[in-house]
Every structure is written in structure tokens, then in C-alpha cells.
UniProtKB/TrEMBL annotation:
It catalyses: 2 R'C(R)SH + O2 = R'C(R)S-S(R)CR' + H2O2. One of its GO terms (cellular component) is mitochondrial intermembrane space. It comes from the Eukaryota. This is Sulfhydryl oxidase.
Amino acid sequence: MAALASGAPRVAPTTPATPAPTPEYPEHCPPDVERLGRSTWTFLHTTAAYFPDRPSPTQRANMLMLLRALPTLYPCGHCADHLGSEMATHPPDVSSRAALSRWLCERHNEVNERLGKERFDCGLRSLDERWKDGPNDGSCG
């Protein structure tokens, strides 16, 4: 991430002319757009899963600042532009943990649809299982 903070060029989006990354992509290399995207979604969804049910005005303001910074700072220009457009059309809902989790899930599903991926169930139970509690079978420890 040092390259990103140093003003290095943004990560190029995967396009038909750019083959999708392969599982052999070395772990020690800077993140490609796919790895960066997965990591960012993991961070955002997990942050939402632990956001308060009744956030204080300061907590709401801080979450809004984080989300509003992404279209400016995110190192994938295409991704940042798309998120900025989506946020203008669908402003973030930081009124509660459930509202924020649902808002992020809906934005993520829009990206998944554009990429031809499956939609995720945006119900709070499904979101909590995926990003906070893990499945009831104990497989996550």
C-alpha cells in the first residue's frame, strides 16, 4: 500500500483486454484490482457489522467521512468513479448497524451484477453470519 499512498497511479480496472488475475498471482506483489476490491469489501462489511445499533452523531459523522472519502482516495479510478455515482444516487444510510450493512450490501450487489457474479442476501441474518458471527456449525472457530 506504500505505492498507493505515494501518489503512484491508480490500479487499472480489469477489462476484456486485461485478463482476470489468476490464483498464481504472487502474494508479495501489490494488489491487483480484484484483490484490492475483495479486501476493501471485507473491511467495509466487517466495519458495518460492528457499527453500533444506535450510533452517536459522532459515530455517524465518522462513518460518513470514511465512505465519502472512498470516491476520492480509492486507488482504482473506475471503481472510485462508480462508487461516487452510486453514492450520489443512493446516499449512505448510517442511521444504524442494520441500515449501514444493508446499504453496503446493496452497493456490493450492484457491483456483483455488473461483473456477472451472484447477488448476496442482504437480510441482516445473512450479513451477520457472513461478516460477524460466522455460520452456526462452528466452522469458523
